[in-house]
Amino acid sequence: HLSEHPKDTTSKKGLIETESKINALIRYYKRVGKLPQDFVYEPERARIIVSQYLGMGTAIQQPTTSAQVGQQQEAASEAPSGVH
User: Fold this and answer.
1) Rounded Cα gap, residues 20 and 84, in angstroms
2) How many angstroms separate the CA atoms of 63 and 70, rounded?
3) Minimal CB count within 10 Å: which of 13, 48, 51, 71?
């Protein structure tokens, strides 16, 4: 999205805040021994994992119709309950 809309400062700020939270959690889980010390967050890998989880192949696309929104919600509700 940001590559197509570089002036979307709201989305850019949201991404920065989200990645900041991710990095804080990584530091915490490394400190308490739940993650290996050499763990590195890879945004591209995270994008692929999330898009596969949402059943969208390799690219995350925004729904354009209410039917597509319903399909996304249905796919998300069918996901394994242990994964959130």
Assistant:
1) 19
2) 9
3) 13
Classify residue 19: in a domain, yes or no.
Answer: yes
The span from the CA of 21 to the CA of 26, in Å, is 9
77 located within any domain: no
pTM of the model: 0.58
Q: Which domain holds residue 35?
A: 9-62
Answer whether 35's CB lies under 8 Å from 29's CB. Answer: yes
Please write the tens of the pLDDT for every residue from 42-79.
999 988 998 888 886 555 555 555 566 566 666 655 55
Q: Is residue 3 one of the residues assigned to a domain? A: no
In the block, tokens 């990584």 appear at: 26
